Amino acid sequence: MDDGARWRRRAVADLMSTPPVTALPEESMADVAVRMDKEGVSCVVVVAGDRPVGIVTERDVVRFAASGDDPATTPVRRWMTEGPDVVEPTSEAGEVIARLDERGYRHVPVVDGGRLVGVVSMRDVMRIAQVQPMVHPGELEAPKGLAGVIVAETEIGDVRGQEGFYHYRQYDARELAERRSLEDVWYLLFHGELPDARQRAAFDEQVRPQRELPATVRSLLPAIAGAGETFLPLQALRSATSVTAAALDFRPCLDVSATQLRADAVRLCALLPTLIGALYRLRNGLEPVEPHPELSHAANYLWMVTGEVPDPEHARAIEQYLISTVDHGFNVSTFTARVITSTGADLGAAVVGAIGALSGPLHGGAPSRALDMLDAIGSPDRAEAWIRDAVASGGRIMGFGHRVYKTEDPRSALLRTLAQRLGGDKAAFAAEVERTIVDVLAELKPGRELYANVEFYAGVVMERCGLPPEMFTPTFAASRSIGWCANIIEQAGDNRIIRPSARYVGPPPPEPVPWPAE
Question: What is the model's pTM?
Answer without folding.
Answer: 0.72
